[in-house]
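If it is no trouble, might I ask you for a protein's amino acid sequence along with its backbone structure tokens?
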Amino acid sequence: MSDFSPLSIFKSQAKQHARQHGMKLSAAQETLSRKAGFEKYHELAVVAQRTPTDPRLMLAAFGVLDFKDSVNQDGVLSDLAQVLVQMLSGTTSQANASEFSLGESEVESAAYNETTGLLTLGMSMTYEGQQDPDRAYHGSAFFLKADVELIRRDGKWSLGEDGVSITSNDWDRAANRHILVTNEAKNVYQKDHSPHEKPIEKLSEDGKRVKNPNEITVNQHVIPQAHLKQWLGGEDLLTIINKSSGEPLKRSPKNSFVVARLWDQPTEQGMIKMNEDNYQQQLKLFAETGSIVRSPWITEYFVMLAARAYFAAKERPLYDSIMVPPSWTPSQAELEDDEVEQVHDTVRIFRGAGNPHATARTVVSMALTQFFIRARELLKDAVWVPFKTTGEKFILPDSNVALYEKRFLALPVSPELVLLDEKLLAKLQEAGQLTPEYLNKRFLESSVRYYVSPK
């Protein structure tokens, strides 16, 4: 048997579990098998031989449902970005832009070698910089195709020894299409919030200025990029319709429906990321089984979308304090460290009472969390079922707050698929309203200013 097959990896995990807990190997195998969703170890072993990509086995052995998701685990993207900086430093020095960073990326293929444990991902990526304002029509991005090699050791994914091999480098297609990023393109959702607090800058050991060293997420998506990409229809840009004028706007998912550092990093990188990951897992399982395995995760995603849209439509709570300022307050750098270090903490310490921006982010995070917990409890009995269309395709509203408030539990997943609470589905069937046309009518009513149109 190969050294890095799912079954071999699982057996290694069982041996380690047995040593750590002072139990027999057979008992450890049974324990971990049940934890993975199998009735017993024998079932897991049989499935491993017949269907090595079984979602339960993939999660147990590789920590992901799909090998393509491995790039989003364990800081792989961050390591990839650092490698690209080194590989492309000579090329970018001749470009009409500066401060390059990894932009949008997509995994197009994945091949796993069970003999070596090497995972090869075929990726397309945008490596983009800040455009020289005096040369707005000149290229500022590289569109790359690369083979990225990963290995999994000690339960974590990392870049392999050969790391990254660039197979194609297409200089900025925007230069040929003369596409300009205007102020309107920056955001098609939020109200005019007061300016956000920009992340800190510092000097490196060699005296170079480093922006955002803590990799603070500034552009926070009200609608996740992965969700928006379902409406691309094989193109690079979304078609977003202005509800009042009917005028179409062309926007990339990256620049659509975002707010600027409205909530804090523990909310963005902790609670919201977990919420999105759980939702994507359910969609993968739905593709495998044809049904929703965990309705509560869909409910939580529906509720989180409503919470984000609700608070993104409000002003940033950046107010002067009526309290006596503390005699000592941490620096912005120290408060930024607090945010990053507490991403996965269940109990957090807030020291930013003297910093209005830190306080504003915390207020929004607390309010968003309260909204989420309350709404999740109210909708805890929802059971989600799929409804597919072969006719008119579904739109995606910029806000589902009205759907939530009216308890119209309908979630557009893609232009062809909507998830409905089973009680709502029965009600619509009885009223003769279970049609794409009627659902789109309700989605349009829920939108505030924009909606995403199918291709």
Notes: Residues 321 and 365 are 18 Å apart (CA to CA).
